[in-house]
Write a structure and sequence with these properties.
The longest helix has 15 residues. By secondary structure, the protein is an alpha+beta fold. Strands 1-2-3-13-5-15-4 form a 7-stranded mixed sheet, with helices on one face. The chain is built from 8 helices and 15 strands. The termini are far apart. The structure holds fe (ii) ion.
Length: 294
Amino acid sequence: MTVTIRQVGPCFAGEIDGIDMRRPLTRDEVAAIHAGMDKYAVLVFRDQKITDAQQLAFTQSLGEIEHAIGTSLRAANETRLPTTFADVSNLDKNNTPYPRDDRRRLFAIGNRLWHSDSSFKTTPAKYSLLHAVSIPSKGGDTQFADMRAAYDALDDDTKAEVEGMVCEHSQMFSRQLIGFSDFTDEERERFRPVRQCMVRTHPVTGRKSLYLSSHAGEIVGWPMPEARGYLRDLIEHATQREFVYTHKWRVDDLVMWDNRQTMHRARPFPAHEPRDMRRTTLIGDGPTAEQVAA
Ligand SMILES: [Fe+2]
């Protein structure tokens, strides 16, 4: 079957036809998907009635997996899924929605802020692949913003200012923004900030993009309040309507996005309803900035 892609977002994001994830990909299909990601940065695959094993096999045919270890507040004995998956659901290990004031749920509400997955890791994520197993009766959309278009729209002074800029990213910074700050000493150590460059250049297309994320809480060499204000202004600029695609989920959608070229956020939904979303992730090529020696 031929692979075709039609644009669904304002300036990016495509819906792809001709891929069946229950079957191994051909070399041409792998090439078409990577080329589609280079161009659209977000690809929507509809009606993928796949098992976790099929999602994992599909992901691994595109690159090397990033494992989800120590990135949420779920204890190791409370997980529903192996570390090859990030559990983006609101469900405990018995598939019951967390109570409204559950600490694990409140931490996960940080995903409703604009972010790039794993920007808090020294080697951050390349692609994320999110499969909708069950969805709430309303809400729960995922929005994506094109960081290439956002970069292109900066004025020349700002382009010069962000060039070479380095930020510190941590899940503690994003959670501070929603008033969640009661971290244990172990969590503070685990969520220690890492450094990321602000401007990234795509290795294939050569396009520049802003590497923004609500996990960014400091700009190296800047006073904190000035840095926080600057980051807030940049995110506001980068998430204007003309740069944003809103995905309304259907069961068995799989959406794949490039974390190097986009930000995304989840939208709210009724707390008592299950939203079972399973994410596999491809690891990036390496760190984007030099780290501070431990
Ligand atoms: Fe995310």
